């Protein structure tokens, strides 16, 4: 009885100490890291040398190169340079990235599951010793599944622009007439 009471009091005391410490010692996130992380494509592909987009954003904020994001390409580099207040690196400038997805040639697949283990976004489904396939809507085109495949049955194919994946670039100088149906008042929404 006394033992249970003592353990309960200790648990309550340590819980109160931990609760106070979590409030008092709370570390706020770096807003620059949050802005950079929001720009990165969130493919978690690891092509930059970091395990995900957030660690790469932290590395950029600490002075690492801004040109390592392959899926983001040159547009991402330009946006990061604006946030960091640095010039866009010249030279080995990346072109606009080509959207690709993995395609598994199913007749060659032996069901080894190495591609499933390599996929950072779980876009490949299948089971051991059975055929695998790629869910194209989830595939980020990171190519991490291609190298571990022992039968070379995974190829990267370009995604042709369609209505679902079209890049609808917004013209900042566009003028849009808007009618408020409750006031019958017409107004113009002007960009920039």
TrEMBL record:
Residues 1-22 are annotated as: Hydrophobic. PANTHER family: ION-TRANSLOCATING OXIDOREDUCTASE COMPLEX SUBUNIT B, OXIDOREDUCTASE. GO terms for biological process: electron transport chain. Its cofactor is [4Fe-4S] cluster. HAMAP family: RsxB_RnfB. One of its GO terms (cellular component) is plasma membrane. Its main location: membrane. Part of a membrane-bound complex that couples electron transfer with translocation of ions across the membrane. Transmembrane segments: none annotated. Keywords: 4Fe-4S, Cell inner membrane, Cell membrane, Electron transport, Iron, Iron-sulfur, Membrane, Metal-binding, Repeat, Translocase, Transport. Belongs to the 4Fe4S bacterial-type ferredoxin family. RnfB subfamily. The keyword Translocase applies. This is Ion-translocating oxidoreductase complex subunit B. Residues 28-86 form the 4Fe-4S domain. [4Fe-4S] cluster 1 binds at residues 45, 48, 53, 69. One of its GO terms (molecular function) is 4 iron, 4 sulfur cluster binding. It is found in: Cell inner membrane. The complex is composed of six subunits: RnfA, RnfB, RnfC, RnfD, RnfE and RnfG. The lineage of its organism: Bacteria, Pseudomonadati, Pseudomonadota, Gammaproteobacteria, Pasteurellales. [4Fe-4S] cluster 2 binds at residues 109, 112, 115, 149. [4Fe-4S] cluster 3 binds at residues 119, 139, 142, 145. Binds 3 [4Fe-4S] clusters. Residues 100-129, 130-159 form the 4Fe-4S ferredoxin-type domain. Its EC number is 7.-.-.-. SUPFAM superfamilies: 4Fe-4S ferredoxins (SSF54862). PROSITE patterns: 4FE4S, 4FE4S_FER_1, 4FE4S_FER_2. InterPro entries: 4Fe-4S_dom, 4Fe4S_Fe-S-bd, 4Fe4S_Fe_S_CS, Elect_transpt_cplx_RnfB/RsxB, RnfB/RsxB_Proteobac, RnfB_subfamily.
């Amino acid at each position: 009885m006394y033992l249970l009471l003592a353990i309960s009091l200790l648990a309550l005391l340590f819980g109160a100490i931990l609760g106070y410490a979590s409030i008092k010692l709370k570390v706020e996130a770096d807003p620059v890291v949050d802005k950079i992380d929001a720009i990165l494509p969130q493919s978690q592909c690891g092509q930059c040398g970091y395990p995900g987009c957030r660690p790469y954003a932290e590395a950029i904020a600490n002075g690492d190169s801004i040109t390592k994001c392959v899926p983001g390409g040159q547009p991402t580099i330009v946006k990061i340079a604006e946030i960091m207040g640095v010039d866009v690196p010249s030279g080995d400038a990346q072109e606009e990235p080509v959207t690709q997805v993995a395609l598994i040639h199913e007749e060659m697949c032996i069901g080894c599951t190495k591609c499933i283990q390599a996929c950072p976004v779980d876009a490949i489904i299948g089971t051991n010793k059975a055929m695998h396939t790629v869910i194209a809507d989830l595939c980020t085109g990171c190519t991490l599944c291609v190298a571990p495949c022992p039968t070379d049955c995974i190829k990267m194919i370009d995604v042709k622009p369609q209505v679902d994946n079209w890049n609808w670039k917004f013209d900042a100088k566009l003028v849009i007439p808007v009618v408020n149906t409750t006031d019958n008042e017409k107004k113009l929404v002007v960009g920039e």
